[in-house]
Amino acid sequence: MKKAFYLPFLTILFLAGCSSDDGGGDPVKPDPDPEPPIVESYYEIPAALEDYYADVDFNLEEDKLHEELAVHTIEKHTDILGYGSRHQYLYNADADFNNSGNVVLIYTGESRDKREYQSGSNSYSPQTFNTEHVYPQSMLEGDAIADLHILRVVDIEVNELRMNYPYTDGEGQYKLVQDNSFYPGDEWRGDVARMVMYMNLRYDEPFEPVGGLELFLEWNVEDPVSAFEMQRNEVIEDAQGNRNPFIDNPHLATRIWGGEEADNRWDGEAEEADEEAPSIPQNVTVDEVSFETVDLTWEASSDNVGVAKYNVMVDGDFYTSVTSTSLTVEGLEPGVTYEFTVSAADSAGNTSDASDVVEGTTTADDEAPSVPQNLSVSAVSVTSVTLTWDASTDNAAVAGYDIYINGEFYQTVSTTEYTLAGLDALTTYSFAVKARDIYGNTSELSASTDATTKEETDENAVAADILISEYTEGEWGFNKALEIGNPTAEAVDLSTYTLMKITNEKEDWENEFQLEGTLAAGEVLVIVNDGAEYPGLLDAADVLTDHQIVNFNGNDPVGLFKDGVLIDMIGFKGGEVFAADVNLRRKSSITKPNTTFTIDEWETYDDEETEGYGSL
């Protein structure tokens, strides 16, 4: 390591004033414009980074070096990205070395098709990953939310597992620890540490809420910078102008905060390029099959530096990357023979040839579910009836039930109880049900059951009333809102109305929110989460609140209650996703509330299209 070397200025003056003439004579006068002392830089900056770091004095220490780097990093951050524009850059930053059409997910290391990102505006299926804020988004504001240096792609379920929990130490793969902290995994702890350090440098975000400085200093030492992190740094510099200096040189963290010596990547000792590929994986074996999965195992490859991952191919197409020597291949079709190969890759991007091909055939499913039994009708009203039946069985799994009205298919539902709305008064209907399994096999029709709706009278007519008229579940952050509309001809006293929601797969309504005031005829009440950032929501808000009633996800139904009785509802019980990352606006033709959510009553828009708020 090179240390700063200073030649004291007084010494220079003294030497300059001494004569080398032993015989005496006039002394040599000091140079009025002496050369400045030669100061050798603490680091040898690589040629590729010399221009970027040209104005940084790396001879500073601790707080002064932190301040110097912070100012530099902020000044270099010339392109402030909007959160919605992050896709085109983030998915390049996280691109798989061996398949540019895929991204590598943090925590799991899996490789996924870039088209599988979760968004209400994305028509591709399946949608398996979304965006992780390594420093939790709920703790950030302003430009920090869209900074690419802390954004990573992540499996949806893993993102939900991590939530906003702080990081903690651990061993092995990612895991939730004691239900209140999260270990990112051995191969990702250094990535996390350097991203959090960047947030402290760039935005002065504290370490304590997300795990503590001591922990991140340890991880910075234990998990060196990977080629993947270096790729991200290059792409992000092109996108927003600045780099993460702790990726360029982890030793900067030691200089600033102390702790054990981290790797100094600027010590002038250039490493030889690794151009040797790992050995080919041997003895790839199919161990077990099911309707849609195949278990693969293989022998570990060897490498001159180390094997970083294994790339698995299915029928010649890239499937995923893993760090282990086994994998369950999912999402296959029943009764189909597939070909599998595996190649090994190191951190320098060298990849072995593919292994020998091994075949595996999934289990076929031609068996239909049992016929639904005991179909019955209850709660008959003027325009609706409720159907119930016994659950069917299947050798695989029952996916849902097809409801038929008068011999014609009506709708597929996932429960064994369903309320049919929108029927005609005083009309006889015949109902029957089929069971459907997850592979499309259907049972025979159940025995039919008839019911006659009631005649509409003054006593049982569905009254016009206030209703939920608009809903937003934003793709990111707390952009969540509800609009209550009054389509009646009279002003309505809101003191008898409340809103409640059901979270995930729970059964009971909770988080009661009391409405207040008077809602004039034809007017609306807009309730917005106080953490929202969409201008359309903020401009239209009558109520800004942190109440849980406007902290829902796309599978949390919301109900409108009058005197404790449900009169209107958006969504389904049971955790079924009905409106994620979208805006729903009630059609103007709907003037009465409905306790059965019917998507035909709503128009669907992008989550940021909020122009409809503020009016019926």
TrEMBL record:
Name of the protein this chain belongs to: Endonuclease
MF (Gene Ontology): endonuclease activity
UniProt keyword Glycoprotein present: no
Keywords: Endonuclease, Hydrolase, Nuclease
Origin organism lineage: Bacteria, Pseudomonadati, Bacteroidota, Flavobacteriia, Flavobacteriales
Region (Disordered): 348-372
Family: Belongs to the EndA/NucM nuclease family.
Organism encoding this protein: Salinimicrobium flavum
Pfam families according to UniProt: Endonuclease_1 (PF04231), fn3 (PF00041), LTD (PF00932)
CDD domains reported in the protein's UniProt record: FN3
Start and end residues of each LTD domain: 455-574
Domain Fibronectin type-III stretches: 280-366, 371-456
